Amino acid sequence: MPELPEVETVRRGLVPRLVGRRIRRLHQRRRDLRIPLPSRLAERVEGRTVVGIDRRAKYLLVRLDDGHTLIIHLGMSGRMTLHDATSAAEHPLDRHDHVVIGLEDGWQVRFNDARRFGLMLLVRNETLTRHKLFKGLGPEPLDPTFDGAALARRLKGRRTSIKAALLDQRTLVGIGNIYACEALYLAGLSPRRSAHTVQGERADRLVAALKQVLIRSIEDGGSTLRDHVQPGGELGYFQTRFNVYDRAGAVCPTRGCGREIKRLVQSGRSTFYCAHCQR
Predict the structure, then answer these.
(1) How much of the chain exceeds pLDDT 90, in percent?
(2) Contact predicate 155/204, CB 8 Å
């Protein structure tokens, strides 16, 4: 599933092409994704101008000039690709291109989702923060106000593992398996460690590691393991910088360590870590 860096990469790729442009046509090629698409979706968005594109957690928020926001979640395999008139003609619609948005300048945005775990909703701006998708979500890890003290408060009393706590979107948002493993490695914290013990200097280290790994991944265009591509079709390449994720059996990259990266299963998910460097 795309995590925060992949969704942020998509957002940044869409902004220059969509913001300030009018939607000329929306072609809906099926009635539902994970849930039914909004009723009269084409009628409600055609003629509207995109005034901004934001991100909350792993959701894209496409702001329209009539006070509505198109909420988009990429699910497990979703991607949004841009095509100019020439590219659109040279690349016929794929059977998984479920929603196609045509802009006034001839460009096209295609929402492709092979597994159909994504979603699109259209809601009024004033109801957005109260929407069930966003109620109870934790803070954004890249928010300047999010620091070690803020994380420590959210972990206080939590008896689950720190890895599980990071994946819980009520703790903080946007962190999935890849970035939890990589941040815990950089912070020198065992994924088995009880979350409530991550206080003080440990919490400071973990927040710094989270920010570092997320920012670097965004700069690299995200991680392309299976489905993720940037809107222009480029692959992300942060996966070439993984320290531990999916590297079981490889030698730990910490100088002088020499131990092998291990794999364990936590809550049905693979965790990769160095038992010597992470305590």
Answers:
(1) 89
(2) no
Residues 40 and 92 in one domain: yes
Catalytic residue chosen out of the listed positions 12, 24, 34, 269? 269
What is the residue-averaged pLDDT of the chain?
Answer: 94
The residue with tokens 């072609």 is 27
Radius of gyration (C-alpha) of the chain in whole angstroms? 20
Residue-level pLDDT at 207: 98
Selecting among 2, 38, 141, 191, the annotated active-site residue is 2
> Tell me: the pLDDT tens digits for 155-196?
999 999 999 999 999 999 999 999 999 999 999 999 999 999
Residues 99, 204, single domain; the answer is no
**Residue 132 falls inside a structural domain:** no
Alpha carbons 37 and 31: distance in angstroms, whole number? 6
Q: Is 58 a catalytic residue?
A: yes
- pTM here is 0.94
- Mark whether 123 and 153 lie in a shared domain: no
Q: Which string of DSSP letters, residue by residue, matches 147-169? A: -HHHHHHHHTT--SBHHHHHH-T
C-alpha distances out from residue 95 to 99, 116, 151, Å: 11, 12, 43
Q: 17, 55, 56, 58: which one is catalytic?
A: 58
| Residue 3 among the catalytic residues | yes
Residue 225 is predicted with a pLDDT of 64
The catalytically annotated residue of 3, 6, 8, 182 is 3
pLDDT tens, residue by residue, 195-205: 999 999 999 99
Q: How many domains does the chain have?
A: 2
269 counts as catalytic: yes
Q: Where are the alpha helices (DSSP H) in the chain?
A: 4-18, 41-45, 85-90, 148-155, 162-167, 177-187, 200-219
The CATH number linked to 202 is 1.10.8.50
pLDDT level of residue 224 (50, 70, 90 thresholds):
low
